[in-house]
Amino acid sequence: MTLQELYERIDGDYTQATNVLRMDKLIDKHIRRLPNNGVVDKLIAAADTMDATSLFESAHAIKGVCGNLGLVKLAAAASEISEEFRPGNPRNFTDDEVKAKIAGISELYEKTKAEINNYEASL
Q1: Would you say the pTM of this structure is higher than 0.90?
Q2: Range of the domain at 86
Q3: CA 32, CA 98: separation in Å to the nearest integer?
Q4: Lower CB density within 10 Å: C or N end of the chain?
């Protein structure tokens, strides 16, 4: 499987990743690190306690990493949580809505992670 094929399978934006990271070698390096990043686990743990600071920091980190990698759906979903808990912003979602959105992020992340693992196994 090529990087481009991986990006098609994960519904990512390979062009965006190329614009940010410039070389397939760097895209490959960073996309393969994503499954072990742990930041989504931190977001899920933060949702259990609804710790606003942890929710913001975790979601903001996911948004940045995924944005740089061209994982636009994950980045957009994380951005929504990040903005919900950005200091000074009013809350727009109930706790249950936030938890449902984080469950969606987790599901999308797991699918993305599985395809990255498939990609790595094909090398």
Answers
A1: yes
A2: 3-122
A3: 28
A4: C
